[in-house]
Every structure is written in structure tokens, then in C-alpha cells.
Amino acid sequence: GAVVSQHPSRVICKSGTSVKIECRSLDFQATTMFWYRQFPKQSLMLMATSNEGSKATYEQGVEKDKFLINHASLTLSTLTVTSAHPEDSSFYICSAPGQGISEAFFGQGTRLTVV
Amino acid sequence: GQNIDQPTEMTATEGAIVQINCTYQTSGFNGLFWYQQHAGEAPTFLSYNVLDGLEEKGRFSSFLSRSKGYSYLLLKELQMKDSASYLCAVLDSNYQLIWGAGTKLIIKP
Is the pLDDT assigned to residue A102 strictly greater than 70? Predict the structure, then answer.
């Protein structure tokens, strides 16, 4: 089946620095990628939808200048957390829709810890 | 507003059967998903229901009643590896996934 590869799986960074998370679709072209954030014991919250070749669509309350999303090719979408703060510590997951309505391919997730 | 409710935590015994309920209120409905998520990992697809009724897939079954805004996930012959969180998610009229907070299932020997 289709695979979405997400890196890194874990990252620890200092406050004020930036962290880039990559999601690659390995055997299919992903024109759309969803980026989620999940806090402990909470649901996945959609942050933004990235579309290849155009600007990402951000959900209400998500700072577009803080969470930079780039979808420069049909196989790569990146999320950059800028000026990271301890409250940005969370589990970030990307997901690409498949051909069918019931298909969704998730990356492995990235555990971000900001110290 | 849109809302998905499921129990926070459930406990069951190895070999037994457990039913995890999910109720939803969303703007439109284009299907309901159940996902399994182990700690620190991404969700894994379990089932998708768009029509009323029961869908059986091995040890797992999922039921949907659109008129009641209700679904359940039934797990039979529980195994220790089934200990995980189970997420209910609804595809709304904009084809956006609305997620429940998940039910943490604890399996005891």
C-alpha cells in the first residue's frame, strides 16, 4: 500500500530555534497533505492543509507565520515550527488522502519537545 | 458546533468482548472512521462506515446508525496487543475529518 514517510520521528530543540518536519509520499503523488497536532490524551487537531504549488490553508487559530508549510513537489510537504516555544511541544502527524474516500495514509508522526 | 463523544477510557479482560461507543453531531456526514492508535504512533485505519448497519472484519466490527448519530466498534477475543487508543472520526459535509478524543482501552490478563 501507499506509504507516507515522516521525519524526524523525535526531535528536541531549544526555545527560539526552528524545526523542520518532512513528509514524503513514497510511491504515489500527494497533491494534498494534512498536518495534525495531537496533545497528550487529546484528539488529532487539523492545523493546515497543504496543496502542491499553492499556499497552504490554515485552520482558525493556527499562526501561519509560526507554522510554515511548504508543498513544493508532489512527493514532499514540510512543516517548519519557527521560534519554537515549550507549549509547541506536541505530536505532529501528516496525512495524505488516497484515491478512495476512505483512504488516508499517515506518516509515522514526530514527537517535538521544546526545552 | 461539531462534536464527537466517546468514553475516555475502558478496561476489559483478555479473551473477552468490548464495545466502544461513539456519538456525533456534525455539519453533514460523509462517513465514519475508526482508527487504532498505539502510544507515540500514528493512527492505523480500522474501518469506514457510510451506510447503516454492521461491518465485520475479523475480530473487529463496526456499526453505524445515521439517524441516531451513533456508531460502535466491537472487538472480540481481546488480545493484549489490542491495548491502544481507539479514535472515532467523522467526515463532514466539507469532507473534513472531525476527530473524537479517543478511547484508551486497557486489556487485563
Answer: no
Say whether residue B91 is in contact with chain A using an 8 A CB cutoff.
yes
Identify all chain B residues contacting A107, using CB atoms and an 8 Å cutoff.
42
Put simply, whether A44 touches B (Cβ < 8 Å) is yes
Tell me if chain A has a CB within 8 Å of the CB of B32: no
Angle at B25 between CA B23 and CA B28, to 5 degrees: 125
Supply A19's cell numbers.
Answer: 524545526
Residue B59: φ, ψ to 5°: -80, -15
For residue A1, pLDDT beyond 70: no
Judged by DSSP in three states, A71 sits in strand
Instruction: Decide: A7 and A109 in contact? Cβ < 8 Å.
Output: no
Beta bridge partners of B85: B37, B104
Separation between Cα atoms, residue A74 and residue A88, nearest integer Å: 28
The whole-angstrom separation of Cα B78 and Cα B81 is 8
